[in-house]
């Protein structure tokens, strides 16, 4: 795993890694890869992936009525920048 | 102080906890935000006037909720998490938001943006994490009840290091609505108490179906605190032998084996179970892949645009990159990179899908073993709380690390109820034992835990002279 590849994963996640962070990660990946190899010691032929602990029906259909609404004030309460009831961000369409 | 003693103090309980917390926090560094007294909603409730601390990843209306991450340093939720709502409806009063590993992604509490949380038994040692602040506040006698969350062992491990009871009920038992997520298929609301009775009582308050959480269960909630009576001859414990075999600390091993001997002497049945060692060694990498992959997706909304700390940028993309680069610690970025790595197309089948398949085999294996015994039992850790300045990093490829320090995650994989309680002291530091039962059989888990507590006599342990 080289630094270029690690930076690719970081960019995919929308952040930058410093040189120091990249070097530390390079070292960590050696141990990590050895740990990941342990998965190959388990035979998973014909085993279905497991996504959640149980197969339990917990979803339901509720009446089509508005519920748990936030007011505009609440929705914007934590926004870093607000103007005339809107989130403010840099111009998107140039 | 247990819940009843706290209730007996009535309106004075809050002040008592609040003042104690302020005094102790200088040494413990367990609290992110102190919360003012909002009054008691229900004087007849099961938790009337009981002061409660909650991990800083529970949304609390109008009270800062940072998850100990810089990117959420200014975040004030506009609603209460369901667990918080239930606590308040039962008469409890929140007095503190407790420290945690950043975004709950750690097991030491060393990654909190406010600095390490200190263990009251030895301030040079960690509390354990990620719910370390909550654990420390119960262990130091500040509060009888504190909420945490448990994705791998984040309540059950700190409980062991701090000499208290840590309970993680079944997956879906307590609503996660309003809890900042880590890994959605593994996350559980969990909590700390001083004894098993209080743990059972707290579940009566916290459990129950919630339409706001799509994984919330319809299973009926029972009066757990009234169902603790047991008969030793009807209890059966399955010892996870792999954990004992991988453990090098002879004192912890002896403490555990004595406990097993005492249980047998009282008439309980004990069965030794040996799981496939390769399967147990695969627990940690399986967890690491699934948890980090889910976390990298869950936290894609932390971008400084609609909430959280925003860094400057000339475009949306720059704002997001700058906010996330500055807002996450190096530790978190590493975890996200691992998640992204396992989800990339070229690795997905080999890593992410493979981990999900191993997870199924783990669950089948542990569920099968629980057909023969009431609970599975093993020490909660192979070590006492490590030092904060740990010069020697543990070798992360040994059986000791992979099994002893990480096996409890099987209960997250399978959604099983699991509880840690004190089993003794080694070198003047508490050590814990863990029990796990069949899914939604909290009654049996609490009964076995109560029997164990009666055998050790260790309950309501408080360490205040630090």
Structure description:
The complex is a heterodimer of chains A (94) and B (466). With 94 residues, chain A is mainly α. Chain A is 36% helix and 4% strand. Chain A is flat, with a radius of gyration of 23 Å. Chain B is an alpha/beta fold and 466 residues long. The radius of gyration of chain B is 21 Å and the shape is globular. Chain B starts with a helix and ends in a 10-residue tail after the last helix. The mean pLDDT of chain B is 97. Classes of the chains: A mainly alpha (94), B alpha/beta (466). At the A-B interface, α1 and α2 of A face α9, α10, α11, α12 and α13 of B.
Q: Per the principal axes of the C-alpha atoms, what is the gross shape of chain B?
A: globular
For the sheet with most strands of chain B, the description reads:
11 strands, mixed
Q: Please name the CATH architecture of chain B.
A: Alpha-Beta Complex
What is the name of the CATH superfamily of chain B? Amidase signature (AS) domain
Can you give the mean pLDDT of chain A?
92
CATH topology of chain B: Amidase signature (AS) enzymes
Q: Which descriptor suits the 3D outline of chain A?
A: flat
**Helix residue percentage of chain B:** 25-40%
Domain module tally of chain B = 1
Strand line-up across the major sheet of chain A:
1-2
The structure class of chain B reads alpha/beta
* Mean pLDDT over the full residue set of chain B: 97
Number of DSSP-assigned strands of chain B: 13
- Identify the biggest protein-protein contact and residues per side: A-B, 52 and 74 residues
Number of domains of chain A: 1
Low-pLDDT windows of residues of chain B: none
CATH class of chain B: Alpha Beta
